From TrEMBL:
This is DedA family protein. It comes from Almyronema epifaneia S1. The chain crosses the membrane at residues 12-30, 50-71, 141-167, 179-198. The keyword Membrane applies. It is found in: Cell membrane. Residues 30-161 form the VTT domain. Signal peptide: none annotated. Belongs to the DedA family. PANTHER family: ALKALINE PHOSPHATASE LIKE PROTEIN, UNDECAPRENYL PHOSPHATE TRANSPORTER A. The keyword Transcription regulation does not apply. InterPro entries: DedA_domain (IPR051311), VTT_dom (IPR032816). Keywords: Cell membrane, Membrane, Transmembrane, Transmembrane helix. It comes from the Bacteria. Pfam families: VTT_dom (PF09335).
């Protein structure tokens, strides 16, 4: 994969960065932690411009968020609530829980969730789905998505520029951090499920 990313950026330049970052949002196994530090390394070599690298990476990432956003818009909250009432008991999930999440996301807290979510590996791709589900207006969605994305892309690009030929160390550092985030989320989910299950047994 690294060779393919290298060849794509080498042959297509900024267009290649846009293309790769678009795919990264559709197929998360193509990590931005490789693409953007490699582009930053290209800046250090004098082959690319840092500002255009950040612009290209951000543009591709934002374009890749749209399919997930519109996927969320195709799912009606009523259907999700119906599914929760029918099958959610295995996860102690009810339509009331779905409504609570939708309400939380819809009442402006979604802006913060989208902005911060674009900074978290593994989550940044899928944060667009609840934004679409709650019919988050396009302007705030674009603004906060862009804000978080530019910060993330700038960080990765600068790390690649600073580390030079050792740009792959960025992924080595961010990999464990991403794992900690996922462990925290999964652990929190398990605690929630077990707590609700125990409450149901106590009734």
């Amino acid at each position: 994969m690294l060779e393919w990313v290298t060849n794509t950026i080498g042959s297509m330049g900024y267009v290649g960065i846009v293309f790769l970052m678009f795919l990264e949002n559709l197929f998360p196994p193509i990590p931005s932690e490789i693409i953007m530090p490699l582009a930053g390394f290209g800046v250090a070599q004098g082959n690319l411009n840092l500002g255009l690298v950040i612009l290209s990476g951000s543009l591709g990432s934002i374009l890749g968020a749209f399919p997930w956003y519109y996927l969320g818009r195709t799912v009606k909250a009523e259907k999700l609530e119906s599914w929760a009432d029918r099958y959610g008991r295995w996860l102690t999930l009810s339509s009331k829980d779905v409504r609570r999440v939708v309400s939380w996301f819809a009442h402006r807290r979604g802006n913060l969730a989208v902005g911060l979510g674009r900074l978290v590996p593994g989550i940044r791709t899928y944060i667009s789905i609840p934004a679409g589900l709650t019919r988050m207006p396009m302007v705030p969605f674009l603004f906060y998505s862009t804000l978080g994305t530019v910060v993330w892309i700038s960080f990765l690009s600068l790390m690649g520029y600073v580390l030079g030929a050792n740009y792959e160390r960025v992924r080595t550092v961010l990999g464990p951090a991403s794992g900690v985030v996922w462990l925290f989320l999964i652990g929190g989910f398990i605690v929630l499920v077990v707590t609700r299950w125990l409450r149901q047994l106590a009734r």
